[in-house]
Design brief:
Elements (H helix, E strand, L loop, with lengths): L31 E3 L5 E5 L4 E7 L5 H6 L3 E12 L4 E9 L6 E10 L7 E5 L20 E2 L11 E19 L12 E7 L5 E8 L2 H5 L4 E18 L10 E2 L1 E5 L14 E7 L1 H4 L6 E11 L2 E12 L17 E5 L4 E5 L6 E6 L4 H4 L7 E5 L2 E2 L9 H6 L1 H14 L4 E8 L2 E8 L15 H17 L10 H13 L6 H14 L10 H19 L5 H13 L2 E2 L5 E2 L8 H4 L4 H15 L6 H12 L24 H14 L3 H13 L14 H12 L1 H10 L1 H7 E2 L3 E2 L14 H12 L17
């Protein structure tokens, strides 16, 4: 690697560092190579090159406050070679005006690059109307060329490229069904590319007026089948005269298109670090990025990416705690370090290494940039909730790799890191010998060992006054986890916690303005304690809490009673929210088993029914925030809590069944629960266990990778920031209590988890 300071960076910028990951356009294709899943790679033959420009944004205020030096890390996915042999490539960062290279590296490629049977090619596309929509079998979805301030100019084209030559008999162009005649093809031509040849025109003309007026399909038949490796339909002008191009569906005649497969990950990457002295000069400026194929076979590369990482990342870089896409904390308890995880970034930066951990023994250190795990590049990180996070986040990659290694009997995980501009591999010894199996401690030895650690942690962290962290939420979950063991040795601890709570909250007003949350937790603790021991001292507290909640109702904007965070009023212009009420409903359902008369359920049900997305009315089945916001993003804890309450009461099975059904199908939103992430994720799992145990079992197995990565044997779980995580809800002192309860849910020792008897 070599560097130079030159004209582009002659003036030092006032900014001293860079911000979030920078978006970089794909390399311009000299020859397309459609990868499985539809992403387009670039095929470079020996001596060929492709380049893009990268404009580096300035610092955000938060990043200015952090200070320190920043490192620029460029990565390019390498998928292999066209023929399956070996190839080489060079990656260069250069000054656009002079062409001088200021940083470079080389990499090798091997193995046959994966290729889709077919891929979409187009001159341009608009967000929400991408070219792939013209080949999805649905004429109601359409392709539209780029429009707006950066409108693409005609001619426009769209077509397919095949991995192997196919016999084309023609095409059918179906105009988009809606809108005006904007983009409907008027003057057109059909071009094909025979194997090894250039594009040639095989048909051209002007479409009949009814193509625009009534959206009649335009069918172009060739004289006979022609073997092609690609075709494209070219729109020279459209019937509106606006210079657009659109299509509802394009069907290649004589060719059957197989269903698209899942995207594949690159098996290797080329890495290049920008020297920190140059990084100080780059904010607000542009540099060039070029990839060149060297000796050997043709190389297939993917989209380049540019990440910026601080040399000493701290929690000052964390994003908005209650929502947003980070940056956030990732706690890799198994490996012994914490990391700064950033959305859409291809690297993971080490924040802290724990003394005596596998990371410390491997001499991993703060600021190291992790490039790969188990010899596979880290995926493009996804921090936003959903399936992409579940499948492709850095957390999921490390966790899944740990389980794969343990199942295969391996005892270490190799990590490739970038240090001082050079990649090197460190091996982290895994402090476990077995992978998880069922995630049920009764049948899974690893889950049993994890539970043992968490229970020991709860024993160690109970305070002298009987509480955990002087907080009713942590105290309730910790007490429930100890009661769930069925071991009488813990009853003294729980009794002390109950007495602490009754002393701290002698009357409901002591719960404060957020009292419906805190009161619900206290009521749940008291109810389970009474059902276990018969202790009648808690009963007056249950009835007082019920009356306080009922009397704390206010009329919502929809003219039905509702509850806020506490009795003082309703938030959000009287729209209120269901979450505090859901906790109260669980408390009341348990208290009714203690002999208390119900009251909150009857009062709040009209509001809850309005907030529910009823499948019979075309809804999705989960419980919304309120009537005006029946979302599919933060449903997890609300739906789980309400379904628990309904099940415990033996009422509204239609609602509870729909809610847990939606949860089962959309479990990757587990960490996006309402406003706090945890304990919302745990509540949802407890709801599944109670209402649909088979769904609980299936979902828990799906998250073995998270437990694997978070667990430090001999300690317990380490904390990773949830998507909707608010730190004031607690970190390791909370998740170890909640998941100690969750892991024991199948034992059904509590009424919350399915008991139907008094255990005293």
């Amino acid at each position: 690697m070599r560097y130079g300071i030159f004209s582009l960076f002659a003036v030092v910028s006032a900014a001293a560092a860079l911000g979030a990951p920078i978006e970089v356009e794909p390399f311009p294709a000299k020859a397309n190579w459609t990868l499985p899943g539809g992403e387009s790679g670039v095929l470079l033959e020996k001596g060929q090159s492709s380049a893009v420009s990268v404009k580096v944004p300035g610092l955000t205020d938060k990043e200015k406050d952090v200070g320190g030096r920043w490192r620029g890390v460029i990565s390019v996915d390498v998928y292999g070679t066209a023929q399956g042999g070996k190839g080489t490539l060079e990656l260069e960062a250069l000054d656009p005006p002079s062409g001088e290279v200021f940083a470079k590296t080389t990499a090798t490629a091997g193995g046959r690059a994966p290729r889709a049977e077919w891929g979409v090619i187009a001159s341009s596309g608009q967000s929400g109307a991408e070219a792939e929509r013209a080949f999805d079998g649905n004429p109601g979805t359409d392709w539209h060329t780029r429009h707006g301030a950066d409108q693409a100019s005609p001619p426009h084209w769209i077509g397919l490229e095949f991995a192997a030559p196919r016999k084309l008999e023609g095409i059918r162009y179906q105009p988009r069904p809606g809108g005006y005649a904007n983009g409907v093809a008027k003057n057109y031509r059909l071009e094909i590319r025979k194997p090894g040849a250039d594009w040639e025109t095989v048909a051209k003309g002007e479409s009949p007026k009814q193509v625009a007026d009534s959206r009649t399909p335009l069918v172009l038949n060739l004289p006979g089948p022609i073997e092609v490796e690609a075709f494209r339909f070219v729109i020279e002008s459209d019937w509106s005269g606006g210079g657009f191009g659109t299509a509802g569906e394009i069907v290649p005649l004589g060719i059957s298109l197989t269903k698209k497969t899942e995207p594949v990950a690159a098996t290797s990457r080329a890495w290049l670090e920008i020297p920190d002295k140059l990084m100080d000069l780059l904010p607000g400026k542009t540099f060039g990025l070029r990839v060149r194929a060297g000796d050997g076979q043709s190389v297939v590369v993917g989209t380049p990416r540019f990440s910026r990482v601080n040399e000493k990342p701290t929690d000052k870089l964390f994003g908005r705690s209650n929502g947003g896409s980070g940056p956030d904390l990732l706690g890799a308890g198994l490996l012994g370090f914490d990391a700064l995880t950033e959305d859409k970034q291809s690297v993971l930066t080490v924040m802290e290494v724990r003394t005596g951990s596998p990371a410390a023994k491997a001499k991993l250190k703060e600021g190291d940039v992790i490039l790969s795990s188990s010899e596979l590049p880290l995926p493009l990180n996804e921090l936003n909730p959903g399936w992409d996070w579940f499948r492709h986040s850095h957390e999921a990659a490390l966790g899944r790799n740990s389980e794969i290694l343990l199942k295969s009997g391996k005892r270490s995980m190799p990590l490739a890191i970038l240090r001082d501009g050079l990649p090197l591999t460190v091996n982290l010894e895994l402090p476990r010998t077995r992978s998880f199996t069922t995630m049920d401690p009764a049948t899974d030895p690893e889950a049993a060992a994890l539970l043992k650690d968490m229970l020991a942690l709860l024993e160690d962290t109970q305070r002298e006054n009987g509480s955990w962290s002087d907080d009713i939420i942590r105290t309730t979950f910790s007490s429930l986890a100890l009661m769930a063991t069925g071991d009488k040795k813990y009853r003294g601890r729980v009794k002390k916690a109950v007495e602490w709570s009754m002393e701290k909250y002698p009357k409901p007003d002591a719960y404060g303005n957020l009292g419906f949350w805190y009161g619900a937790y206290a009521g749940i603790l008291y109810s389970e304690w009474h059902l276990l021991t018969g202790d009648k001292k808690v009963l007056p507290h249950l009835e007082a809490l019920r009356d306080w909640a009922v009397n704390g109702k206010h009329n919502s904007i929809w003219n039905v009673p509702a509850l806020g965070h506490g009795p003082s009023g309703l938030p959000y212009e009287n729209k209120a929210l269901v979450a505090p009420a859901c906790h109260l409903l669980v408390f009341e359902a348990l208290a009714c088993r203690c002999g208390m008369k119900s009251g909150i359920w009857e009062m709040i049900m009209p509001f809850m029914e309005m907030a529910w997305s009823n499948p019979k009315e075309g809804g999705h089945g989960s419980l919304g925030y309120n009537r005006s916001y029946k979302d599919t993003e933060e449903f997890w804890s609300r739906s789980g809590l309400f379904s628990m309450a309904a099940y415990l009461r033996g009422e509204r099975p239609d609602m509870s069944s729909a809610m847990v059904g939606f949860m089962e199908k959309n479990h990757p939103w587990i960490r996006n629960s309402h406003a706090y992430g945890e304990p919302g994720g745990s509540w949802g799992l407890l709801g599944l266990n109670l209402v649909k145990p088979e769904a609980y079992t299936a979902v828990m197995k799906e998250y073995a990778w998270w437990f694997s990565l978070a667990w430090e044997p001999g300690y317990g779980l380490h904390f990773t920031q949830p998507h909707m995580g608010a730190p004031y809800m607690g970190e390791e002192d909370l998740i170890n209590a909640t998941y100690a309860l969750v892991l024991q849910a199948p034992k059904r020792n509590l009424h919350l988890t399915g008991a139907h008897f008094s255990g005293r």
